[in-house]
Design a protein that fits this description.
- 2 copies of one chain form a homodimer.
- The first copy, chain A, has 6 helices and 23 strands.
- With 318 residues, the first copy, chain A, is α+β, with helices and mostly antiparallel strands.
- Chain A folds into 2 domains: 57 residues, no CATH class; 260 residues, Fumarylacetoacetase-like, C-terminal domain (Fumarylacetoacetate hydrolase, domain 2, Alpha-Beta Complex), CATH 3.90.850.10.
- In chain A, α2 packs across α6.
- The longest helix of chain A has 12 residues.
- At the A-B interface, β7 and α4 of A face β7 and α4 of B.
- Chains A, B: Pfam families: FAA_hydro_N_2, FAA_hydrolase.
Chain lengths: 318, 318
């Protein structure tokens, strides 16, 4: 099943089922995504009509919980190296995860509004929406709670992160509203889903040029059941909880990857590219997002058809 | 206006207006607290009937956002001293705040379920519920967004905190579901409200004995408008955002306070009491919550009447 939420006067929008080819949709009886998750009613009794992804808000325009992991530990190691911070060995066995803001997500085509001095960056991620998860859930229980998969642009304000990390209390100012793909897809409809993760190329274009072509199924140290079980160790998770993978990041021959322009898989965020530049030339060249800069994030099926629709966002000055 | 939410089949419960003396209530047309905040419709057209706080769930049984500050910096200094960690001077001018879980709060009378080895502690706090707050809100805008005030028990798992603080990503496992008072009260109905904060004694009884009698209006380094503006620096806050004060904590003659049993104002969490014991005797004596241990948190008006109802929770083993 493919679901999307159309913008409406309701802050939770209007839930629709979307056809395989993302061309048509029909409203679901539950009205909103959260109501469908709460009641288990994903039924429809309306006619199909034209689907335009530009009418979409986030599948869950606001959610009761967003927990974002850092499952691609390679990314963590790279961004820490870029800051001159060593990475504890435990990060390879104990997932990093933060409680993210979930009170209002950006629509997939919304501008990212902020002060360029904050160091505006994108992060292409895979995210899942769960049903209810009991406290202390096993990996099997966690796996069976995964209801939908989508893409995420976890907007990050790089220049505000070191200060907040130093305080230890996580990200409040440095992780503003993030965005999700127009369409959320149930795992049974995803050929790339298996072993608790999504495989396939995550396409990231920055200002119209290929920037990232990483594979989400590779180098994911912690799969989604593991991330969910980590989150549920001491508390229940409500239906509609969103769990993010963290920035998709691939190694190359055990080390950092190469830019797409040099034949590599590239990067899912500017910070990694800057780190590689720093390694190679002593200084970062690529600037963080400036007003007008654009990022597109999507995945394709074997026939080249978009799976989740496209996150397509431009930066805009405050 | 005094509002509470009665348990119902709806995960968001049923919103009621409560009389001044907390003896009667009547349903509000909006149905749920979030719907009233979303629409601004706080109207009622039903009859008053008996109000029993034991029928209450959290005023917002689940919320889109809970951000918890550490406005009583004295508390931060004490718990860090107890861990042997120095406190950066910047903590006196730059608020500490973490994004807390908000997908499901405990009811005011719910057991706190957990493994005693986690170091289960309570934290008595003041919390406010906001209307919508624009990104970059001024202190005046932040102040005017405060809609309701309530009490919070920010349950903390002390033995899991140092590991998560060390990772820098904030609290996920070490801050499980917290609880709020049965009744949320608008500032205009609170004689103790002024200067962006709530004044008056926060009563904390632990196992039936006075444990905390701190004054919430004293030693609050950052008032609520300041906390809200901090949260809104880089993002909008949705209506229904809950902002917590952090553990209410009073100094005594510039140093740590004394237990109630020794004539002091006592403490709003066990961790502070243990810290004082460590200072005085070299070792903490008071254990964190064991199965069956009970905490009660409430405030009273000038006539001794309960303002918000009572948070009354016992620990229970997993």
């Amino acid at each position: 099943m493919r679901l999307a939420t159309l913008k409406s006067a309701n802050p939770d929008g209007g839930l629709v089922e979307v056809s395989d080819d993302l061309s048509t949709c029909r409203p679901l009886k539950a009205g909103t995504f959260q109501a469908a998750l709460d009641t288990g009613n994903f039924g429809a009794d309306a006619d199909w009509h034209n689907f335009d992804a530009s009418d979409c808000v986030s599948p869950l325009p606001r959610a009761y919980q967003f927990l974002d992991g850092s499952a691609y530990v390679n990314h963590v190691e790279l961004v820490r190296k870029a800051r001159g911070a060593a990475m504890p060995e435990s990060f390879w066995s104990d997932p990093l995860m933060y409680q993210g803001g979930s009170d209002g997500f950006l629509a997939p085509g919304d501008d990212i509004v902020g002060d360029p001095a904050w160091g505006i960056d994108f992060e292409a991620e895979i995210a899942v929406i769960t049903g209810p998860v009991p406290m202390g859930a096993s990996l099997e229980e966690a796996a069976s709670a995964i209801r939908f998969v989508m893409l995420c642009n976890d907007v990050s304000l790089r220049n505000l992160i070191p200060g907040e990390l130093g305080k230890g209390f996580g990200f409040v100012q440095s992780k503003p509203a993030c965005a999700f793909s127009p369409v959320a897809v149930s795992p049974d409809e995803l050929p790339g889903w298996g072993n608790g993760r999504m495989s396939g190329t995550v396409y990231v274009d920055f200002n119209g040029k290929p920037f990232g072509r990483t594979d989400a199924g590779i180098d994911m140290t912690f799969d989604f059941p593991r991330l969910i079980a980590h989150a549920a160790k001491t508390r229940h998770l409500a239906a509609g909880t969103i769990i993010g993978s963290g920035t998709v990041s691939n190694k190359l021959d055990g080390g950092p990857g190469k830019p797409v322009s040099e034949g590599g898989a590239g990067y899912s965020c500017i910070a990694e590219q800057r780190m590689i530049e720093t390694f190679e030339t002593g200084a970062a060249v690529t600037e963080f997002m400036q007003p007008g800069d654009n990022v597109k994030i999507w995945m394709e099926d074997a026939s080249g058809r978009s799976i989740f629709g496209t996150i397509d966002q431009s930066a805009r000055a405050l």
